[in-house]
Amino acid sequence: MSVEDVTPAAAWDALRADPDAVLVDVRTDAEWNFVGLPDLGEAGKQPVLIPWQVYPSMQVNGAFPDHLRKAGLTPLNKLYFLCRSGARSLAAAQAAQAAGFQHAYNVADGFEGPPDASGHRGTVGGWKAEGLPWRQR
């Protein structure tokens, strides 16, 4: 089984249309606090915040599948994993699939996307660049 990449817009559409769809933001506390979060209020939801790597060591969260279950998620949920640019979220989605969460998707380009020509994120691709709702924490 492999993890499918979906665009941020496709993930947003799924979150609004499917009651079993959940956005799992796997960034760090620092990123949630200082960069912002997807605002899922229009979908009547909140993102589930579970770091894939623990700041500041950036060691992989070995209890990640357990945290998914403790958040009330089940294999019936469609899980859309989001990070800054799509790399950590892909690893998290793969780990979720290996733990029995077969409906795991990677949000391509993540929350901020790749850097632009000036080295800044949030303008070329990703949740923010696509104009999807977000807020500061």
UniProtKB/TrEMBL annotation:
One function term, GO molecular function aspect: transferase activity
Residue numbers spanned by region Disordered: 116-137
Gene3D superfamilies reported in the protein's UniProt record: Rhodanese-like domain (3.40.250.10)
Transmembrane residue ranges: none
Entry keyword set: Transferase
All residue ranges annotated as the Rhodanese domain in the record: 17-118
Descriptive protein name: Sulfurtransferase
Species annotation: Teichococcus rhizosphaerae
Upper lineage: Bacteria, Pseudomonadati, Pseudomonadota, Alphaproteobacteria, Acetobacterales
